[in-house]
Write a structure and sequence with these properties.
Layout (H helix, E strand, L loop, with lengths): L1 H11 L6 H29 L6 H11 L4 H18 L4 H4 L2 H16 L10
GO molecular function: trace-amine receptor activity
Membrane topology: Multi-pass membrane protein
Pfam family, one: 7tm_1
Length: 122
């Protein structure tokens, strides 16, 4: 619920639409998706792991692979604050809205297209 409030507030108010808040919205989206997609499957897996079979294991892996997205997003936020503090005059040129959008999109595409770490053969 908090993630939706953050997304709505940034979308509604023009003064909140900054590159830093773009990273916060990206983190809110990832948090929302983790809560809605990954947590229910993780709960089902912890309750009854052997009942669903191989197809459930494959689907579970595909949904669990982007679990490092919040950490990557927080790293981007640290980089953003580092540039803002150490190079405040160059900040608008280095961290533009286009740059933030590119970072968020590339992070998402890299995480969703990660290769499986375990073999799917039985």
């Amino acid at each position: 619920m908090r993630s939706l409030v953050i997304m709505a507030a940034v979308a509604r108010f023009q003064s909140l639409q900054t590159p830093t808040n773009g990273l916060v919205v990206c983190l809110a989206v990832v948090d929302f998706l983790v809560g809605k997609l990954m947590m229910p499957l993780s709960l089902v897996r912890s309750i009854d792991s052997g009942h669903f079979g191989c197809c459930f294991c494959r689907a579970n892996f595909l949904l669990m692979s982007p679990s490092s997205a919040p950490f990557f997003n927080l790293s981007l936020m640290v980089l953003d604050r580092y540039i803002a503090v150490c190079n405040p005059l160059h900040y608008p040129a280095r961290m533009s809205a286009r740059c933030v959008a590119y970072c968020c999109c590339s992070a998402g595409s890299c995480l969703w297209s990660s290769p499986p770490f375990a073999s799917t053969s039985t």
